[in-house]
Specification:
By secondary structure, the protein is α/β, with parallel strands linked by helices. The protein has a single domain (3-174), classed as Rossmann fold. It has three helices and six strands. Strands 1-2-4-3-5-6 form a six-stranded mixed beta sheet, sandwiched between helices. The radius of gyration is 21 Å and the shape is extended. Residues 20-30 and 167-180 have low confidence and may be disordered.
Length: 180
C-alpha cells in the first residue's frame, strides 16, 4: 500500500473518530442539561445508628406535582460528581431512565468509601441478631438511609428500591415492611 493511501485512511479514521467523540459529548451535554433542568441536587451526610455519616447525593424532581418513589443506589465506586452545582454528565442507560421516569434518584458512597465516614468492608457480613447500635451491616446502613429519606422533605411516596453496587443486591422497600 502506498503512503498516500495509508495517509488518506488514517485521516478518514481520525475524522470519523472526532465526529464520534463530538456526537457522544453532545448527547452527554443533553443528558446533563435535562437533569439540571428537571432536578434539584442536594448533598447530605446521613447519620447511621452508630454515628457514622454516609455521603449521599439526592436528585429531587423540580415539578413537585406529586409524590415520587425513590431509587437508592449504594456503591463503593464513588457517586461523583461531588458538589451541589455539579450534576451527572452522562448517566448510564438505566440511571437515565430513572430520571426520565420522575424518580427521586439517590446515590450513596457506602461506609468507608470516598466521601463517607467509617471503615470499608467489601460486602460487610450480615449480622442476624443485632444486640447494639454498633452491630452494623449493609442492611442497617440501607435501612437507616431509607428511614432518613422518608423523614426528610423529599416528597417521597414512601417507596424505595435499593440497588447495591458491590454485590448486585436489589430490594424493594416500603414503609409497611419492618427492616429493623
Amino acid at each position: 500500500m502506498d503512503k498516500a493511501l495509508q495517509s488518506s485512511k488514517r485521516r478518514t479514521f481520525l475524522g470519523l473518530s472526532l465526529i464520534w467523540i463530538m456526537a457522544c459529548s453532545s448527547l452527554a451535554a443533553q443528558d446533563a442539561g435535562y437533569i439540571r433542568e428537571h432536578y434539584t441536587k442536594h448533598e447530605y451526610q446521613i447519620p447511621m445508628r452508630d454515628g457514622v455519616k454516609l455521603f449521599t447525593s439526592v436528585y429531587v424532581p423540580k415539578d413537585r406535582m406529586g409524590k415520587y418513589p425513590i431509587i437508592l443506589k449504594r456503591t463503593p465506586y464513588s457517586v461523583a460528581p461531588y458538589g451541589i452545582d455539579d450534576y451527572l454528565d452522562a448517566p448510564r442507560k438505566q440511571r437515565k431512565r430513572f430520571f426520565q421516569d420522575g424518580y427521586i434518584v439517590v446515590f450513596q458512597d457506602v461506609r468507608g468509601s470516598y466521601m463517607s465516614e467509617g471503615t470499608f468492608v467489601n460486602v460487610r457480613p450480615y449480622i442476624e441478631e443485632k444486640k447494639s447500635k454498633q452491630d452494623i451491616d449493609e442492611t442497617t446502613d440501607a435501612y437507616d438511609t431509607i428511614d432518613w429519606l422518608f423523614g426528610a422533605r423529599t416528597d417521597s411516596e414512601r417507596r424505595c428500591q435499593v440497588l447495591q453496587g458491590q454485590r448486585g443486591v436489589l430490594e424493594r422497600v416500603d414503609e409497611s415492611r419492618n427492616l429493623g
